[in-house]
Amino acid sequence: MTGFLHPEGGYVFVVTYGRSGSTLLQNLLNTIPGYVIRGENNNALYPLFESWSAVTQSPDITRMKADGTVSDAAHPWFGAEIIDPDAYRATLCHAFAQRILCLAPDTRVSGFKEIRTIADPARFAAYLRFVQAGFPNARIIFNIRNASDVCRSSWWRSHDPQKVSAMIQSADAVFRAHVAANPRCCVLLDYDQYSVNHDALDPLFALLGERPSRAALNAVMGTRLTHAT
Length: 229
What we know:
By secondary structure, the chain is of the alpha/beta class. The chain has a domain at 11-40 and 109-221: P-loop containing nucleotide triphosphate hydrolases (Rossmann fold). Helix content is 44%, strand content 12%. A 5-stranded parallel sheet has the order 2-3-1-4-5, sandwiched between helices. Helix 4 (85-99) crosses helix 5. The radius of gyration is 20 Å and the shape is globular.
């Protein structure tokens, strides 16, 4: 990781489910000079969170650190007391930014959008705390869309609409709760609002402290994406 620095403007992560308009947001963000917001990575960051959680949630490691244990080679957890969870998290996130986001030297703000983050809603908040602690100045954009429209879109049509709708409603509730608890670094956007009224994107631009040009915004919002129908 020698020579790599996090981008000076921090990170932006788009968190949502499939067919919600997240690629549109990704495209829009990338019109802002210096922004490099990558696409999906098959939720590659989540296993790093799980690795870090294995260390921080281990009762044996926690007890050894709390008790001031000094282990030796005969101890089954030899050396566990010297593990530094904060340093480990920083190293994991640093490596992810360098090797997965693959940032160019002139990148001011980076991040990615992902539709698989909510695979385990029970650990969702803990995962996002990991992200916000490991990536400097991390802002999280939650993107939602009307459940019935999602159910009729692309691959969702082959799924049970009741199950899809329940998943979306659960995800939306989790998103709203996280924004309510973290209003200074998170924002909730509704595709059904900003797709017809671009002013509905103003909360996003307020969070970022900058915005694309009006021409760039109109060009992106006026272009129909064809990666799935």
